[in-house]
Request: fold
Amino acid sequence: MIERDLAAIWVYLSTTPLLGLTITLVTYSLAHQLYIYAHSNPLLNPVLTSVIALIILLVLTGTSYETYFEGGQFVHFLLGPATVALAVPLYQQCSKLRKLFLPVAITVISGALIGAFSSIGIAWFLGASLQTQLSLAPKSVTAPVAMGISEQIGGLPSLTAVLVVLTGIIGAVIGSKLFELMRIKDDSVKGIAMGISAHGIGTARAFQVSPEMGAFSALAMALSAFATAVILPWLLNFLDMLN
Reply:
């Protein structure tokens, strides 16, 4: 009886946009429960686990990405409001932010440029094409901004999107452990580093650690996106003119 009911539900969902939305929410909920059960083991980051589980599910059921995204786009749409909502924890840390704004701004600009050009340099050293190098440049910026930058500077936006997600997941998984190894205890410092290097996914992980770390990560993520969008295309064009 239960199996027939589940089969009927699946048949119904598979013919509506609710399929993508439902499996996304259910998969992430299960991944988050697993993450909690494992005592917040970074290797079981719910974003990483959800991505792997969804890929396996879509392959096993023969569901195309286009069919999945008809419902998954509703979650995608919420990225905008979720980003705006980061203003709340930022406001709660407003007094500390005012005192540290200048060093934070300098750190963010430096971090964004070092991250971009180190990626280009490593890719060049390993023999990657120019287009791949340029696609890597904005990998640490939140996806919508990174894809726009990639297109503007001659990269491949679709490749950049994949690299952005991978960067965020890797940063969220290993970030906390790196802070422990480096004996960094200040949540504001950890948040800035996470926001610069791992954008939204890293910021979500930062909020799991503490509201202060999350607030500074959100600030660094926003400033990094702005700095990269403004400075990187201009700087690349300038360097190209010199050559």
Remarks:
- The mean pLDDT is 81.
- The chain has two domains: 2-77, 83-242.
- Residues 118 and 137 are 8 Å apart (CA to CA).
